[in-house]
Design a protein that fits this description.
This protein is an alpha/beta fold and about 325 residues long. The chain contains twelve helices and twelve strands. The N and C termini lie far apart (about 50 Å).
Length: about 325
């Protein structure tokens, strides 16, 4: 299977590496020139819980340079860059090409649907942590039970290509599962409960996940955020979420995720634009749609916006 990874940063590099290890013909696309040059020269250095591998794939600065049609295009950019990423990648599509969306939060598939038929879009959720400490390097925190889930956007049951995708990833070392539309929607919201109760809060407090979560005050804040999210999920027709959520659990210090710096916190540390409008900001928008107050999520969203708009003035 020919696969293009659009956005070869921490998570894109991780997913592309597992595809490559599973036998797929993978191409990385990312405008970060130093990163792509390093990958082309030395391979991508992948560190999974201390175990290091070199992944040899071809990297490009833009999709048009590939000059081939792909079987699968995987979009792994931040929400605010999805539209430009898919527009740049349309040259890789023919009538049989499918698109796999791997983003945090809500609203990503809706953007992709403006450019691609929804029945060719697969929604995916990844349950592991990743960071990029330097160009050409990724670090993966793969806790027990880490997996990728993939499901259709329009059809009720997963088509054959989703089974092919998950088989390649599993063969490469990342357990991957084909899900129904109902199941993947529940998974998406499950991850929303985790991201919206941790990512922005870690960015605001400048703490890794476990340090924030294990404070009594942190649990109180996470609980307030979570109750708003669960209420809105019910109004969006997502059932069974409360029973499976673990967003307010303590993290033991011997778990790699205890030390994890979530993506929003990574962005704030690097003074970059965050995904807040696709995370807590999306909850605020849905709260207005359903007439549900979201004071916790509104506060967190506003604080991140203040930080983003004042990077040059922070002490």
């Amino acid at each position: 299977m020919k696969i293009a990874i659009i956005g070869a940063g921490a998570m894109g590099g991780t997913i592309g590496s597992y595809f490559s290890l599973g036998g797929a013909d993978v191409r990385f696309v990312d405008p970060y020139q130093e990163h792509i040059d390093k990958i082309n020269a030395d391979g991508l250095q992948m560190d999974v819980n201390g175990e290091k591998k070199i992944i040899h794939v071809q990297g490009y600065y833009e999709s048009a340079s590939i000059q081939e049609k792909m079987d699968l295009v995987v979009i792994v950019t931040k929400g605010s860059y999805i539209a430009s990423a898919i527009q740049d990648a349309l040259c890789l599509f023919d009538k049989d090409t499918c698109c796999m969306a791997i983003q945090n939060g809500l609203g990503n598939v809706e953007i992709l649907s403006q450019y691609i038929e929804p029945d060719r879009i697969f929604a995916s959720i990844v349950q592991l942590g990743a960071s990029m400490p330097a160009p050409g390097e990724i670090q993966v925190l793969k806790r027990e039970g880490a997996m990728l889930s993939c499901g259709p956007v329009t059809q009720e049951q997963p088509p054959e290509k989703i089974f092919q995708i998950t088989e390649i990833l599993t063969r490469g070392g990342l357990d991957a599962f084909p899900l129904s539309r109902k199941e993947i929607n529940q998974k998406i919201w499950y991850k929303v409960t985790a991201n919206c109760t941790g990512n922005a809060c870690c960015a605001i407090t400048r703490l890794p996940l476990g340090r924030f979560t294990n404070c009594p005050e942190g649990i109180e804040i996470k609980t307030g955020l979570l109750e708003e999210i669960l209420s809105i999920a019910e109004h969006e027709g997502i059932t069974g979420l409360r029973e499976i959520t673990t967003a307010t659990n303590y993290w033991p210090e011997n778990n790699p995720m205890y030390h994890h710096i979530p993506s929003t916190a990574q962005d704030v540390r690097k003074k970059k634009k965050t995904e807040i409008d696709f995370l807590n900001g999306a909850i605020v928008r849905l709260g207005k749609k359903h007439g549900i107050p979201t004071p916790y999520n509104t506060m967190v969203t506003n604080l991140i916006h203040i930080i983003e708009n004042n990077y040059n003035f922070m002490f």
